[in-house]
Specification:
The structure is a homotrimer.
Chain A lengths: L10 H6 L1 H14 L10 H10 L23 H30 L7 H35 L8 H8 L1 H20 L5 H16 L8 H27 L2 H4 L4 H27 L16 H19 L2 H11 L5 H11 L1
InterPro entries (chains A, B, C): Fe3_Rdtase_TM_dom, STEAP_metalloreductase
Main location (chains A, B, C): membrane
GO cellular component, one term (chains A, B, C): plasma membrane
């Protein structure tokens, strides 16, 4: 036990805290050097704490906090999220803020706190969501290619697969923030002032109606798709709470995570595509020869959905099912028999 | 164990996966033919999976997924929700979209993705919420009528009672979606264009102030009631999470589910009634001789609240309390004594 | 067991419900007179209920509901919240509604259901959030002053510390309601009418642009800070769900509750300060010689953050760390040795 030199000799305190020390000794016995994974669970720690009535800021220093793992499963997803957000931020900042300033001298820096951030959030969110479903597809392709399920996946694929839950939860968090940011648009002073200026111009130009049927339809549909997508993502997130997922049996868990998951990805991709509408072909959207961000954002999820659509076609689906039942491609079997000689 | 014919003879694989097979054998021992309800819990399944490091898409085919129940408690509530939504959609579509088109040739089809859907959502939501509290009231009335608690309820009532939690959660989900849809109104292009056109007309008519005191009050009150209702429903939903409800004692659970539940129903009904305001008596609201949807939506919850208000009156409440303490009406006792002969 | 006199003699019923009674007897054995804390957990109660297939409104009266504690940990936080909300409501009502009516005869009573309530909610929320972190700071100051950790804290401080989780959850609930209320602003009729009138005036005054750069920036920043603060509070709230916090080890729990908690407090305080912007120095904000509510609301959280900033300075942080490792100030030790004689 680590102790300061000044700490020796205060035996009367030790006596008072004897119960505490006994329990801590037990704790240390079970803890020692926390070998990988062998760390005292949070639950029993907190039970101990409530047993000896300690406040958390009094947590005994002899329990080496530094040796406890700090969200080991979240490191990779968080780093990935940070990188994606940084790239998306720079790209959006260049296109939406810097380009108007450089080309037309237009000061649009006020867009950074909300409008730029609210392009970064959905872009990162949908990318993370696609990355949840990409490894499953890669694994299926690998199994089809190998013709057997009795081969280990590469390490990187296994690592990736083991953090899918974390990726999905981050995607949901960013999607929620995106929703709140979007809902706050008409609250902002900048929106109010723009609206007043548009009204002024409409009166000046004696334009009786501002209605643009095309634009109205576009926005009604993509908002509706976005809300439905968020609702389904919320169900997925709730079902991944430990206490909820414990009450589900395997088939229910599969149904939620797979069926609802792909539905959410489909709705979110459709949401992004309808948001784009005809901007695909409008040349003015390609400022500085860069495509609008929704095209880049849609690319990965659209690929995932496309490959998935191919994989659920009867011929491939049946073969994959047989492989997962233990069937092996004859050529493959011969090869692996030779391997075992 | 079901196996493909090709699967025989690959013993070296069997060896490699021996541990896995042993565990699966244990699994099958406990599972065999899943007799009703006797299905391996999701928890132990997933523990098994993590023990043998299988990915879920590799889940052994010998575990018959098809025989596992798929959300058995949710079938009835989901079907009910689907029917209610379909009816509400048709009704709203006819009144809000088709009638203006047929009568005035007005093209309001853009209303379908958001405005029509956002009448369907609250209507279904409040109906489901009323259906959570209706069976309790029917049961109380039945007990009062029979004068005893020692009689089984009809099967349909017991079934209904057993899915109240599911009905409540669906009501909450729809209420959340309704809130997000409502908050998205001023974001939409259609709202912006309408606003600009109103501004144009106000200028043309030289109307200094657009303020309508009555309308302002109506909207401030019903939004406030709606948000408070949603807040209380959220507390109810959180308290029904397994890990949260496990920490509540019986009295706390009762207090949340009953007191908060009726408060939420009251707030939501008031929200709908204030939304209606004076439309009750405005003849133009009765297009094609149909009443506005909020009247239909309010009917059931208002009935439930009314009967509940009667039931908590001292005379009835005391009698019900005595019945639930085991007291029986004398005439009833005589009859049941005869029955037992 | 309490029973009505009429209840005697219905033995045939007793037989039918024998199983039930046996289980209840067991229940009563474990329950008897519920001595403090020794109350049957909600879990086992509900298991019992499902075992004997009783509906909750049939809950046996022999289990004395009145003797069960009703959210004992929530009494103090809820009372505190009620008092804070009442004070904030009166203050805001006087300044925002009564003052314009008395001074200028302006009827702003329509502000009560949303605008006044939505000043009360964030004010109470940020105060509760500051009260979560204040006791930890007081305890640290006390430890520094006493120079030892081997002294009990005063009872009020221990009680306060034991309800920090509840205070935090209430702060989050109010913050969520505040967010929804704020997002509903542009939906309201009052906002629409004001907007139309502003547009009318802009046209009358032939003002080409309504844009106020300063105001735009202020609002973009404070909305963005508020949303981020709410997002972090949501993470904190989720991590305090029993099933989630059980999966965290001590260091993770610390990291979430402390690092994220102070980040949230910082963001929310910044949100309030940016909302204030230059109103600090505008004399017209001090109606009836009272400061604007955001100044009062910011005071406590700003103090907490300031003292915390001082406490994490190396010299104090090191000393506090040594005290928590068991070190005692020499003078203190002499004194306590005398005490023990």
């Amino acid at each position: 036990m680590e102790r300061d030199p000044q700490d020796l000799g205060d035996d009367h305190h030790e006596e008072r805290f004897q119960l505490c020390e006994v329990e801590l000794a037990q704790l240390q016995l079970t803890q020692k050097e926390p070998e990988e994974g062998e760390v005292l669970s949070g639950l029993s720690q907190r039970r101990l704490l409530s047993a000896v009535a300690m406040e958390e800021f009094e947590f005994p220093a002899s329990i080496h906090l530094q040796k406890m793992p700090l969200f080991p499963k979240w490191h990779l997803p968080l780093k990935l999220m940070a990188v994606l957000m940084a790239v998306a931020f720079v790209y959006t900042f260049l296109r939406d803020v810097l380009q108007p300033y450089v080309s037309n001298g237009k000061n649009d820096f006020y867009k950074i706190p909300i409008l730029v951030l609210n392009k970064v959030l959905p872009w990162t969110s949908i990318t993370l969501l696609a990355l949840v479903y990409l490894p499953g597809i890669l694994a299926a392709l690998l199994q089809l290619h190998r013709g057997t399920k009795y081969s280990r996946f590469p390490v990187w694929l296994e690592n990736w697969m083991s953090v899918r839950k974390q990726l999905g939860l981050l995607a949901f968090l960013l999607a929620c923030l995106h929703a709140i940011y979007s809902l706050s648009y008409p609250m902002r002073r900048s929106y109010r002032y723009k609206l007043l200026n548009w009204a002024y111009q409409q009166v000046q130009h004696k334009k009786e109606s501002a209605w643009v049927e095309d634009d109205v339809w576009r926005m009604e549909i993509y908002i509706s798709l976005g809300i439905l997508g968020l609702g389904i993502l919320a169900l997925l997130a709730i079902s991944s709470l430990p206490s909820v997922s414990d009450t589900l049996n395997w088939r229910e868990f599969q149904c939620v995570q797979r069926t609802l998951g792909y539905t959410a990805l489909l709705l979110c991709t459709a949401h992004a595509l309808v948001y784009g509408w005809k901007k695909w072909v409008e040349l003015k959207q390609y400022v500085w020869y860069t495509p609008p961000s929704f095209i880049l954002a849609c690319f990965l999820p659209a690929m995932v959905l496309l490959v998935k659509a191919v994989l659920v076609m009867p011929c491939l689906d049946k073969r994959l099912d047989r492989i997962r039942h233990g069937w092996e491609r004859p050529s493959r079997k011969g090869r692996s028999d030779k391997d075992s000689l």
